[in-house]
Amino acid sequence: MVRLSARAGGRPRLASFLGDRTALKATLDGNDPGVSVTHWLDRLRRLQGIPFRYLVPNERMLPNESIRFFNLDFNWLFALVEGACSIGQSSALDDTLHAVTAPRLRAAAGLARAQGATAPDTASGFLLRSQVVAGWPKLEVVAFDASGQELPNVIRLERLTSSILLYVVEGRLDRVILREPAIGLHFGIDIEGGKPLRYVTVPQTAPEGTRPGDQIDGASVAPTYRDATHRTIRIARLAADLSDGLYARNADNAAGGQKLPFTSAEFALQLVEGTQEVTFRTAPKKNE
């Protein structure tokens, strides 16, 4: 590979640019070196700008349709920033300046630690390689620690490629929920053919905390088809079966017990298909 400085005309153009004070001033005007450096270090802390092969050294470690959890090693990040801060050291003067400036840069990047302190394990995450990443660009991620508390401080959530998602969060990740975006809310019938019933009104016999719209445990209606080959549903029959199922469970009744009209609103409520979600754990519980 030909070096940039050795290319035809490269060195004269560079010398001409460096000798043009007006051009230099226009280029550097408004550029605060301290802000630029700390911004760069903050990007490193978030694993931005790091070659992917440094994170996954072998493709077999992240096969198709897989998820891999990790804990972010604070010592590794510290070494990364230390190496970035030491770029260009070639003399005793550079060493002296580095000893003074490096702690400030680490502090600005949020990676300072007290003398002698042990490295905390305060960040974790996962890499997901799946067609789900491409199919749902706005895939929602909710993370929890071992105590069940949600981890709200997301360090990074980014699609690295069309099929690879990187997620890093502050804290020790124990359980993560991947959820279809809310825009996926629609009407439909389960692929197996059944349609679970939902409470329109909540009877006194319902479990405590039940709200209108919640599914009724163990209650569903199997649709009948006008054309089974093309799965053409008999809509009027489905509406009648849904209303009968609700009335039988006092789930669409007034306070006095009389049946409420089963209108298009109730029919729409029954046909709602909620967003799909899946839960992963970093390690199974002892009783699982």
Give a brief description.
The chain is of the alpha+beta class and 288 residues long. Helix content is 32%, strand content 21%. The protein has nine helices and 13 strands.
Describe the fold and architecture.
With 288 residues, the chain is of the alpha+beta class. It has three domains: 26-55 and 73-117, no CATH class; 56-72 and 121-179, no CATH class; 184-273, no CATH class. It is 32% helix and 21% strand. It has nine helices and 13 strands. The chain has helices spanning 10-19, 21-28, 33-45, 52-55, 74-85, 92-108, 131-135, 235-248, 264-271; strands at residues 66-71, 123-129, 140-144, 154-159, 164-170, 175-179, 186-187, 195-198, 215-221, 225-227, 232-233, 272-273, 277-281. The strands form five sheets. It has a four-stranded antiparallel sheet with strand order 1-2-5-4. It has a three-stranded antiparallel sheet with strand order 3-6-13, with no helix packed on it. The radius of gyration is 30 Å and the shape is elongated. Residues 1-8 and 114-120 have low confidence and may be disordered.
Low-confidence stretches: 1-8, 114-120
Lateral arrangement of strands in the main beta sheet: 1-2-5-4
Note the run of SSEs as H and E.
Answer: HHHHEHHEHEEEEEEEEEHHEE
Percent of residues in helices comes to 25-40%
Number of strands: 13
Number of helices: 9
Q: From the helix content, strand content and strand pairing, which structural class follows?
A: alpha+beta
Shape assignment: elongated
Task: Give the averaged pLDDT, no decimals.
Answer: 80
Percent of residues in β-strands = 15-25%
In total, the number of domains comes to 3
Let me know the largest β-sheet. 4 strands, antiparallel
Distance between the termini: 57 Å
* Gyration radius, rounded: 30 Å
